């Protein structure tokens, strides 16, 4: 069996059995490396080389966790929660609660969408915005799987469609550049305007998946215990009385943290400056910074270690060389059947991205092989864009190692009541990857 397929299957199977995702990634990498012909030493060496690339992301998560804990001490989260609880009013009818739930989900969705394009901070907003809202979600008995689906849609669909912010990087700098690079010797030329047009139908499939998740799959009530999101053992939450200076400094710190991240490209710098401003504002004493970082790292530790392990996993998969053989070997199965060829391209992209956890990293791997095959099978330029773009995006939503699922889990699981695999990964896989396959195939066959 191909080493990449086996490694991904081992990793996903262990994760679904509630084995730690970190352990599943390490075991999957070892299995894939050994089956792929690497020695144990070579496998470990490749894994260790990849681990270094994930350390910066892990530190960024820990810093954001500390910043979120610091914000919680200002009283701003409690004021926000109280305002939303007031919005609920005394009316407790199911219809009224349903309206408030939808308002909350739409607000979260809009913020997530803007984090990719209008204010491209990616997942940095989640540890600041989501934990304070958990008390309101608990009161509404809002199913957090619906929130996870809304967040993941907002983190993935915009960069696939809108060429602004992260979308400009994905659509223009990576997808368009790799398509034209691979297609130039074949006479294939893709214009900038063709890319978002080609991706519109697959993204429409994701939008349908989102509506199914919010209006049908997870519209029912789900009960959660009220816990202190900053406490390790789930103690009863003690509200912080908001005061003017704390609220002002919290607003300044949030704006400064996001602004610096945009300017420097570093979540670490933004988080540290935000923490420093909160300390200057008297929200906490600087000598308490160690406790603050400890609480933040406790909140984000698992997510950070998953990101580190995922980087090692990806490096082992590349070292085996079986990604290229997976792509090439898949096409021996379907002869001259265009429909089957399109389906296999999408499924190969799904497997690669599930393991690597990044659609941005998948495009350079598959474009050089997919583009000549698409031309050979007579696919139009628009259909070629759809095949490569959708194949890369498949698996971003629904991968245990993707920040599009790890980000929502980092905010929704701060009180230990949101399982990463069953409450983030599986719901987003079902509601986004299946429609992407169907609508991506339909677009490839009709455009």
From TrEMBL:
Na+/H+ antiporter NhaC-like C-terminal domain ranges (all copies): 151-441
Keywords, sorted A to Z: Cell membrane, Membrane, Transmembrane, Transmembrane helix
Record-annotated Putative Na+/H+ antiporter N-terminal domain positions: 2-87
InterPro entries in the cross-refs: AA_Transporter-Related, Na/H_Antiport_NhaC-like_C, Na_H_antiport_N
Topology in membrane: Multi-pass membrane protein
Keyword rRNA-binding: no
Transmembrane segments: 58-76, 97-113, 119-136, 148-171, 194-218, 244-262, 268-287, 299-319, 339-357, 369-394, 429-446
Subcellular location: Cell membrane
Main location: membrane
UniProt xrefs under PANTHER family: AMINO ACID TRANSPORTER YUIF-RELATED
UniProt name for this protein: TRAP transporter large permease subunit
Organism: Vreelandella piezotolerans
